[in-house]
């Protein structure tokens, strides 16, 4: 058995944080928050039907925003805020001997904010608006420290397997809680609950799950001494000064920068496909709510296997080539989606299976491959840029999807238009020399994938 296939106690402990935080990203952000916020904000705006078509405004710091668009604006604001905050956090994390406490501290602060969503009810949406933005930004800060720990607990040879199993563990944990919550929401009357209370309890459960399971990695992980010396000056001077240095020094690592640009494009496509799948399924293909919910759950659990499968591919071929194959797989998916007939449940679910297989694998291996392109001791800085770029540009795909729909009046050309993000991602990936990029960053090319990481002549 390959050494990289066996996780050490530190690596198993690290996986638990994927299990912990994924509950928020699945139950809250992916499924329940937006429709419930629209309902509550629509009540506040005086819309009797409280659907996403409500255009009556609510006031946010003097801005009059349509109630049906409020969640989108809040998430966009959170992503832009994250892009500004995360690099500062990352520079500080690199010089801290207490990375696990940064991970847990930001995680607990984020989960506390997420718990405030329980108080969203009736027409009271204001506290929830603050809570979702704060939880999203603080959660991103926590992930910067979490990703940086990956380099401390694994060698270059182990990195792909550890990242893939962590991502798979996250899909399993997030999917399990989502299954429990969707049962509670759909069968709320059987539990003596109103639907509103069932949703609120589900939102609260995601916060509690996040906070409770964070205890496991905090207790079991060790703190590792930073490999870079602390700077003098104030925290802000150290952090923003290092951010400027990071951006300037990235010119010395052209393959790292090229991969980051590739990731911006194909990850934006991934996030848009995931975010628009339910809209495409319900509005264009006429899928029922039951089919959509079943498909969402299926994707979570199949993605668990997909992440593990891509991890095995990486052990044989290195992480670079499976990422490229996954990007091509996403191109195939958006093209196939155009030809799914309206009302074809079997083909819609089959498409969901394909999404699940490539989704977990491309995201998990992107994390581990990027870690090989980072100079040692600067993981926080570079992963902060990784997360900040992901969050700060993740609205491009949504914008394109919306514009194409507005022009054509159909979601079919809107979904296939997303192929441009995967094509651009693949183009930049092909410009990356994996072996050279790893060596320029001062890391060792993983031995089991040496040949695969050598670019074809």
Automatic annotation (TrEMBL):
Q: Which UniProt keywords apply?
A: Membrane, Transmembrane, Transmembrane helix, Transport
Which GO cellular component does the record give, naming just one?
plasma membrane
Compartments where found = Cell membrane
Q: Which InterPro entries match?
A: Atg22-like, ATG22/LtaA_families, MFS_dom, MFS_trans_sf
What SUPFAM superfamilies does the record point to?
A: MFS general substrate transporter
Among Gene3D superfamilies, the record links this protein to: MFS general substrate transporter like domains
Instruction: Write down what this protein is called.
Output: MFS transporter
